[in-house]
Amino acid sequence: VSEASRIAAAQRALGVPDVDAARIRADAYADAVATAIRSGGKLAPGSPEADSLARARDVLSIDAEKTRSVVDDLARPVYLVAVRETLDAIVADPDVNIVDAYAKLAVKQTELGLSGAVPRSVLAQEVAAHSVALLKQPVRLLGVSNISGSLEGIKAAIVAVNRIIELIQCDTDGGNGVTAFREYVGNAIVNQYGPQLPKQLYRIFLSDCLSGLKIDSDREEDLNRLRALMNLSPSDAEDAFKAAAGPVYRRKVAEAMTGDATTEETATKLASIKADLKIPEDSSKTVELDYYREVLARSVYGNKIMSEEDSGVLAKVRSSLALSEEDVSKLHKICCAPIYEQSVDEAMGQSGIIPPAYLEGLERLRIRLGLSPEDAKDVFYGMAKQRMKLYAQKAMVQLQKSRSVRGTDEAKDVGDDPNIKRAGAVLGIEAGSAGYMGELSNLVDFYTSNGIAIKKEIGEGEDKKTIMEFPVTLRGSLESKTMSELYRNYFIMGLSSKNPREQTKILNNIEIIAKILGMTAQEERSANVGLGKVIYKNICGEALGRSNAILDDERKRLGTIQNVFSMNEEETNAIEKEARETRVQVLMERCFNAPKVLAPRVKDVREVAKKLDVDIVKQLEVSREKRKTMFSVEVDAAIEGGMVTAAKKDFVAEVQQDLRLSQEDAKDALLALIQTRCNSALVNAAASQRQGSSEAAAEELSKMITFGKLLPAKVSSPMVSTEEKQDLLLLYQAFNIDEGVMTEEAKENIVLLKTLLGFPAE
Fold it and tell me: By the 8 A CB rule, do 280 and 242 touch?
């Protein structure tokens, strides 16, 4: 029976689960491998130890993949120590032969029976650790500002890296040792020291390389090794090169410019230096422009205008450095624009308008300062914008002053006529003053006289036309609200001017003002429509307030406003509708805000609403209770005045319809009115009788009959007794007998009075 069979039988006898049995067998095999390694045994195929382990693997039923994993895991630490000792040896002793050292590692790898991937991963791990250690001293010395000591440490690290790369080259099977080294190190340096310190160390060594103004092949190779150690990207290396080479080249440029050499000789010398330094074109151009900027800044220091001599020096520098005018234009704009701006400001003077002779002088100054026409124009536009803003601000001050004339003690009644000619009011809205107009007129004159607006032809043939472009505007310098207000009030003043010549000028300039302010076509349109609406509404309000109608003269004015502001029919119809509603609403408020609702005011509301076609329910939403009150007040007055009788009730129906009351509401209101008036008349008649005033009592009874004719019914009045009612009936009969005769009308009235008093009619 085999050993494997006996082990299996023992497992079954002991009842050990398969999982636990597999673990026990694996542990036994691992112990055997560990024992072999500790005893110095060789695990290479064919060795006694390897054969012994193979038999153990068969007995323990360990699969090949598992045995390989166990050997690699247990042999790896031993191989790691061997690699570390090898790296220490080749770095510490330059006499150690790299090939021999690698051969020993290869033998060790074979003896330990390691698979192909493990030895390389161990080598990568130790190379990364050694690389981090190589920079420990340079980093420490850099931290205490010992640059020279740090430089020496970097050089020593480069030597060590070269040795390590030679060792790696032996392991790459013909591959690139530098590439493999970079892969092994990876981000180990950055992870240990951060991203900036490696770059600083690289720049220190690079500066040392550039001290001789030329980087030879050996130095180039060292830099390549150092980049691999730091794992610097090409862009990082290029930035470092620019930072290090720039100052060196800068010194050489300054030295070259101080000599007596010709511009051609200087240019040739600098080209040679650039080639030796291998400095990129953009880096050298940056240095050259920086030097040119310093020379230029000195020539205009203190905002002085450069002399002819200064111009000559600058021309020589440009030629020596092969700089074009385009290259230096930006520098001239930065350094010389303030001088040109000051001169433009002086040329504008108090009036703001530059005389033609001064324009010629500014052009000569532009050339001397080296400003391009475009840059000079930008400066001029900037100064123009400052002046334009000043005009606008002054105009706003004048506008505020004109508005303050009204005063804080002047009441502002919401029922005021919108066209009262109060201070600052034009066409019913607040407007500016003469000072305001003067500032905006000055703004237009400044813009046009200085030729800021540009004429431009567009289109071809019959479609060809000339337009004006406005390159400088106040957009962005003023709030949107301020722009609209300036434009709005300028327009109002133009419409209100009584001087035809001035009015024409203002209205012709209104579009220019809009462009100067920087208003868009939509903003201009909105301002026009908004302003037109205000004026149109005020004219409508004025007309309706005067005659409750828009007459022919007002209609002509409205037509003019509609045309000037390009208002469509829909807009004007909506404004007129609102004005009509407002007029009726004002009359309604006056009616109910009075101490007592009076019939004449109710009549005004009703008739004006009918005339202006305003539905007081649908459009004004007058409440049902208010309409019933209005109905009662006006019908009451009509009954008392004789307009409404039992035979003439058409007026009641008319009022009911005008006030949009239902039949039921009108009947309830009329009944309540009659009952109230009849009851009041009865009480008053009784009171007069008690006081012995028979005539007054008879008059009150006549009022009672007048109202009772509309709805004959008994009047309930607990305040008047039956006896008093009988006496009042007799009194009324007596007052209606003339020479012993009573008219038929009087008889009918007495019969009605009996009904009202609650007596039988016989």
Answer: yes
Query: From the centroid of its chain, how far is CA 236?
Result: 37
Residue whose entry in the numeric block shows the structure tokens 């052009």: 363
Q: For residue 411, is pLDDT > 50?
A: no
- Using one digit for the tens of pLDDT, what is the confidence trace for 145-168? 999 999 999 999 999 999 999 999
Query: Is the alpha carbon torsion for 368, 369, 375, 380 positive or negative?
Result: negative
Q: Which residue has the tokens 């036994």?
A: 28
Q: Check if the beta carbon of residue 510 is closer than 8 Å to that of residue 486.
A: no
The DSSP 8-state label assigned to residue 453 in this structure reads: S
Q: Which residues pair with 467 in a beta bridge?
A: 456
On whether the CB atoms of residues 706 and 639 are closer than 8 A, the answer is: yes
Q: Going by DSSP bridges, is the β-strand pair 454-458/465-469 parallel, antiparallel, or unpaired?
A: antiparallel
Residues 262 and 52: their CA atoms lie apart, in Å, by 88
**Residue 602 contacts residue 634 (beta carbons within 8 Å):** yes
β-bridge mates for residue 209, sequence order: none
Interatomic CA distance for residues 313 and 649, integer angstroms: 111
In 660-721, alpha helices (H): 663-690, 694-708
236 is written with which tokens?
């990082």
- Determine if residue 302 is left, alpha or beta; phi over 0 gives left, psi from -120 to 50 gives alpha, anything else beta: left
Q: Which of 120-134, 251-265, 483-497, 654-668 has the lowest mean pLDDT?
A: 483-497
Alpha carbon 409 to its chain's center: 42
Whole-angstrom CA distances from 633 to 583, 591, 627, 716 are: 21, 11, 10, 22
* Three-state secondary structure call for residue 176: coil
Strands 429-430 and 425-426: antiparallel
Residue 459 region by backbone torsions, left for phi larger than 0, else alpha for psi between -120 and 50, else beta: left
Q: What is the DSSP letter of 461?
A: G
The DSSP secondary structure of 724-744, one letter per residue, reads HHHHHHHHHHHHT-BTTB--H
Q: What is the DSSP letter of 549?
A: S
CA 685/CA 694 separation, integer angstroms: 8
CA distance 725 to 756: 10
CB 212 within 8 A of CB 252: no
The pLDDT confidence band at residue 426, using thresholds 50, 70 and 90, is: very low
Question: To 10 degrees, the CA torsion angle through 117, 119, 122, 126?
Answer: -130
Q: How far apart are CA 365 and CA 131, in angstroms?
A: 63
